[in-house]
Amino acid sequence: MRITCPHCGARDSREFSYLGDAKTARDGDFASVYLRDNPAGAHTELWQHVMGCRAWLEVVRNTSTHEVLSIREAGK
Amino acid sequence: MKYSVLEILRQGLTGNKGWQPLWRNPGPKPAYDVVIIGGGGHGLATAYYLAKTHGIRNIAVLEKGYIGGGNVGRNTTIVRADYGQKGNSAFYSHSLKLWQGLSAELNYNVMFSPRGLLELCHSDGQLEAYNRRANMIAAQGDQVEMLDRAGVQAYAPYLGFDSARFPIRGGLLQRTAGTARHDAVAWGYARAADRLGVDILQKCEVTGIDIANGKLQGVQTSRGVIRAKKLAICVAGRSSQVAGMAGMRLPIESHVLQAFVTEGLKPFINTVINFGVGHFYISQSDKGGLVFGGDLDGYNSYAQRGSLSQVEHVAEAGMSMIPALGKARLLRSWGGIMDMSMDGAPIIDKTHIKGLYFNGGWCYGGFKAIPASGSAYARLIATGSLPDYAAAYRLSRFESGQLINEEGTGAQPGLH
Question: Residue B271: pLDDT band by 50, 70, 90 thresholds?
């Protein structure tokens, strides 16, 4: 699987660290810490380019095919 | 038909023409007392124990594909009872006891082979941790022993004792652990349940769950509507989707775990080796193939295949602990979908909907759990309460804080 970092270009997924569902509000309540939509299909998730520019990326990826649908820098 | 030596003789003398299919292939009835979604190991075991122990015979098991085609046929077949956390240890201890009598119980050879399980230790700290765990396992009455370096060398001489990075300092050995034939477990439970009158409905996919006023009515399936007094979800790899049909959100993420098998070799690996630091585990099948696996790829996936980077990682971990592995040729690899719970332990519980039950979140440990999971789930469905050995697997534990976090990694399923 390759992830196209907006800063560094297409890179091996090994360079990235995975956090999980980006839509989960991380405000510390029970549902946001523990419950997940866990869709089979388009999933908006956070990856960090730890072995590159270290930017946090918001990636939309199809969990049934691993196809990356869109990528943008998180929080922007 | 009961299998016996006499039956083999009789069939042999009559041209082997009397053997029957292992289970019937009935059409769906309009209504059942209990409908189980998922014809994997856990679902079939649940049906069997409901019929055998609790006398409920009007049961259907709905399977989207075919029996043995899901995760029960995609695992590395390891059976062990070496858990350390309260809640887990008693459960897996009970499951191992059920494995020991399973072939006789089902009148079907599941080829349970207690060939032992060796967990390797590479540092003082790890030895201390495993000594503590061994004491806990011994205290609950299960077989366990600690080996020193010489003991490991005598037991498994093919390991890499020259490794500078991971020197072998000792190991935890459970001689009663081992492997079983995964297909036979599915087939054995299916046949035994069928003999007790359970309808196994293959190619029957659930498309909706009917609920009215907070009470279960039945299920919509690809083979029509089926009414049910009780509905039991038991679908490894699709828990979130099926529970979603009842409006539930689960503390589960689905991840891919890859496994591998080499060409058939002469007897080489005499036991199950668990190289925990590299997250690598291996055994040799009765056919001779070396069956091994590694860690999760680490991202949400339903694709049943993983990344090549993880293949490389598993190969490196294997080579670092068993250098001779490099001579073997890989026959095939595959991925299975693991429903990873937020604390790494499973869930067996009622839901907030009357008549709807949930069993899932087995992470990558579901195979060894099949007998105890089925028997606990059957008891819950039949009587409304879980047996003591499974009482910790409540869905509410995530909210109440009574987590069973064996790995200590927090609510990060990709790290369990």
Answer: very high
Taking only residues 26 to 65 of chain A, the set having a beta carbon closer than 8 angstroms to any beta carbon of chain B reads 30-31, 33-40, 43, 45, 61, 63-65
CB contact under 8 A, B398 and A30: yes
pLDDT tens, position by position, B241-257: 999 999 999 999 999 99
DSSP type of residue B53: T
Angle at which helices B89-100 and B124-139 cross, to 10°: 60
Q: Do domains B19-78+182-251+343-415 and B114-176+253-341 have the same CATH topology?
A: no
Predicted local distance difference test score (pLDDT) of residue B408: 83
Q: What is the pLDDT of residues A25-67, one digit of tens each?
A: 767 788 999 999 999 999 999 999 999 999 999 999 999 999 9
Would you give the DSSP letter of residue B28? P
The Cα B123–Cα B109 span in angstroms is: 40
Closest residue in A to B308 (Cα) is: A1
Find the mean pLDDT for residues B269-273: 97
> Residue B299 and residue A34: Cβ atoms within 8 Å?
no
Separation in Å, CA B113 to CA B117, B154, B172, B303: 11, 21, 18, 32
Q: What 3-state class would DSSP assign to B380? A: helix
Say which CATH superfamily domain B114-176+253-341 falls into.
D-Amino Acid Oxidase, subunit A, domain 2 (3.30.9.10)
Show the tokens assigned to B360: 């899932």
Q: What are the angstrom distances between the C-alpha of B375 and each of A15, B22, B47, B264, B385?
A: 44, 22, 9, 35, 12
CA nearest to B118, candidates B157, B172, B64, B73: B172
Contact of B176 with B101, CB cutoff 8 Å: no
Q: Which parts of A1-76 are beta strand (E)?
A: 2-5, 9-12, 17-21, 42-48, 56-62, 68-73
Cβ pair A38:B412 closer than 8 A: no
Q: Do A65 and B342 touch (CB under 8 A)?
A: no
Strand partners, B36: B61, B232
- Report the topology of domain B19-78+182-251+343-415: FAD/NAD(P)-binding domain (3.50.50)
CB-CB contact of B116 with B174 (8 Å): yes
Domains of chain A: residue spans and CATH? 2-73 (3.30.2270.10)
Domain boundaries, chain B: 19-78+182-251+343-415, 114-176+253-341
Place of tokens 């079983």: B180
Partner-chain residue, chosen from B241, B252, B399, that has the shortest CB–CB distance to A40:
B241
Q: Kindly report the average pLDDT of chain B as a whole number.
A: 96
* Closest approach of A76 to chain B, Cα-based (Å): 23
pTM, full prediction:
0.96
